[in-house]
Amino acid sequence: EVQLVESGGGLVQAGGSLRLSCAVSGITFKDYAIGWLRQAPGKAREGISIISSDGSTYYTDAVRGRFIIFRNGHEKMVSLQMNDLTPEDTSTYYCAADPARKIVRPEYWGQGTQVTVSS
Known about the structure:
The protein has no helices and 11 strands. By secondary structure, it is mostly beta strands. Strand 5 (46-51) and strand 6 form a beta hairpin.
């Protein structure tokens, strides 16, 4: 059974930081790019960051320079360090896994974790 389990969401004030983590099991970790997408009520799904097994990364413009994605192959975990958060970052964040870096329509995704940024 494939599982992507997110943790680390919560409530934070604008300007603050959070780190999201994703524990991955049930897939061959090195064969998948792992990343994060988010979706807020009434808004389109947004792929925000992804990291491949070779360490190459992608960030959407909205988060580049503020968010950093990390990958730990030994522990099969991917983390997203989110800095300088704004109310516009409020959303449900989902961990995603896809062999072809399709971050918006991934092969697998988790249950999501809520991030709320207060002004």
